[in-house]
Automatic annotation (TrEMBL):
UniProt name for this protein: CDP-alcohol phosphatidyltransferase
Segments crossing the lipid bilayer: 49-66, 141-162, 183-203, 209-228
Pfam families: CDP-OH_P_transf (PF01066)
InterPro entries hit by this protein: CDP-OH_P_trans (IPR000462), CDP-OH_PTrfase_TM_dom (IPR043130), CDP_ALCOHOL_P_TRANSF_CS (IPR048254)
Organism (species): Streptomyces kanasensis
Length: 252
């Protein structure tokens, strides 16, 4: 199969756009589709693509912690994180193109995502501690910003993942799936990982980065109870009645 044929087949193997922000829908997923097609042609497996995603992501994270916080560093960090995020989309698309993923592949993908989320905010905390004059984080209370952001992100990640797994046991309501909401897609932008990656372009700006990072952290905290309430309602809904069928014959 050629790259063009693989790309065409991937167009019909996409997840639903419901609950997906505009960035993931129109930027990250299309980028991942191109990468998945290229990975298929070159013979990469979904697990190998997941590891490529990890290499890019953790290279950017390491730069946040150890490199000087300049504008050039910020641009390289953003590029590494954005490419890693695109490959994170590509591994699932490649798995569907190859006929479906495996439990081990899904496990690896989620473990890498969890580690990426945890270590990225930890790297920001290290940067704030190492360069207080640059970021304006001389007050110890400002070091709590990455910790609060990390807590909200971790609970959101775990809650969403657990909800996805448990919903497989809950009968889905009948009828066609609702069309994705553009308003919801816009509202989800502040908590999209791709938008979060963009804030590192402000790394050289010091206080500008602190403000941008802090605002996204505040959004994560504000959205968390909304997500938790929504997921709880979805899992707590009454089970759908069994489908009607022929009655069993009376015992003789």
């Amino acid at each position: 199969m050629s790259w063009g044929e693989a790309l065409g087949r991937l167009g019909g193997a996409q997840k639903t756009a419901k609950g997906v922000s505009l960035y993931s829908r129109f930027v990250n997923r299309p980028a991942g589709r191109f990468l998945a097609a290229g990975s298929y042609v070159t013979g990469l497996t979904p697990n190998q693509v997941t590891l490529v995603s990890a290499v890019f992501s953790f290279a950017g994270i390491a730069a946040v912690a150890v490199a000087p916080p300049t504008w050039w560093t910020g641009a390289l960090v953003w590029l590494a994180l954005a490419v890693g995020f695109a490959f994170d989309s590509a591994d699932g698309q490649l798995a569907r193109l190859r006929g479906g993923g495996s439990p081990a592949g899904e496990w690896l993908d989620h473990v890498v995502d969890c580690a990426k989320t945890t270590v990225l905010h930890t790297a920001v905390l290290v940067a704030f501690h190492r360069h207080p004059g640059h970021f304006g984080t001389g007050a110890d209370v400002l070091l709590l910003v990455p910790l609060v952001f990390l807590t909200a992100s971790t609970v959101t990640f775990f809650g969403g993942l657990l909800t996805e797994q448990l919903k497989r046991r809950v009968p889905a309501p009948g009828g066609p799936a609702p069309a994705p909401s553009t308003l919801r897609a816009v509202a989800l932008l502040p908590v999209d990982h791709g938008v979060f990656c963009l804030v590192f372009l402000l790394l050289g700006g010091g206080p500008l980065f602190l403000w941008g990072y802090g605002l996204l952290g505040a959004a994560a905290v504000l959205y968390l109870p909304l997500f938790l309430a929504k997921w709880f309602r979805e899992l707590n809904r009454p089970a759908a009645p069994p489908a009607p069928g022929p009655r069993p014959a009376p015992a003789r």
